[in-house]
Amino acid sequence: MTTRKLMVVTAGLGEPSSSRMLADQLSEAAKAQLSSPDTSVDVETVELRDHALDIANNFITGYPAPKLSSVVDRLTQADALVVVSPVFSGSYSGLFKSFFDLVDSTALAHIPVLMGATGGSPRHALMLEHAMRPLFSYLRAVVVPTAIYASPEDWGTGSSTEQSLEQRVHRAARELGTAVRDSPRNGTDPTRIRPDFETLLHPPTHH
């Protein structure tokens, strides 16, 4: 039996937070895609607000606290990541950025990442493309094509936008499953990985 490690990082500040709600939905769909009769999935969810003081102190002292250091170590050993941030001032939150500033620029190389964000208006959806995707490209992660943005309209019971969110979540989870199976970290020759031409021809749109 193979065990996959799925690490979920959410920067929501409320309790509960919409970012955590989206992270849970994404991780549930991703777990379903990564699971098989011979593969189990270990999901760990990290709420960055629980480590906010240690993250701030790290910038002052230059050294991470043991708990924070352990989180970063487990992050870099994961088979896949789900990352979700609320939108603040048109970008990801400072807490989200500060945490990933602690990660070495090569430590996430080849790790598949599914990105998500939440905000108060649909007009902030492009933050995922102009801010978050470049961050993880810099960290050399493999970011799946579909990024998930959820605004308040997406949580309405029985609404068409909710159905659209569910469809987008499952599409992104399928892409993450494919990326994990094709990952060089699993011994796959990266030169054999082929682009998803259907996605290239019909890129996902954000709602």
Provide a descriptive summary of the structure in words:
This protein is 41% helix and 20% strand. The protein is α/β, with parallel strands linked by helices and 207 residues long. Strand 3 (80-88) and strand 4 form a beta hairpin. The radius of gyration is 16 Å and the shape is globular.
Radius of gyration: 16 Å
Number of beta-strand segments? 7
Envelope shape:
globular
Provide the number of structural domains: 1
CATH fold-level topology: Rossmann fold
Just name the CATH architecture.
3-Layer(aba) Sandwich
**CATH H-level name... which superfamily?**
Flavodoxin domain
Structural class: alpha/beta
Q: Whole-number average pLDDT? A: 88
Helical fraction equals 40-55%
How would you summarize what this structure contains?
By secondary structure, the chain is an alpha/beta fold.
Write the SSE topology.
Blueprint: E1 2-10, H1 18-34, E2 39-47, H2 52-61, H3 66-76, E3 80-88, E4 91-92, H4 94-100, E5 112-118, H5 127-138, E6 142-143, E7 148-150, H6 160-182, H7 197-201
Parallel strand pairs: 1-2, 1-3, 3-5, 5-6, 5-7
Antiparallel strand pairs: 3-4
Characteristic terms for this protein:
207 residues; alpha/beta; Rossmann fold; 7 helices
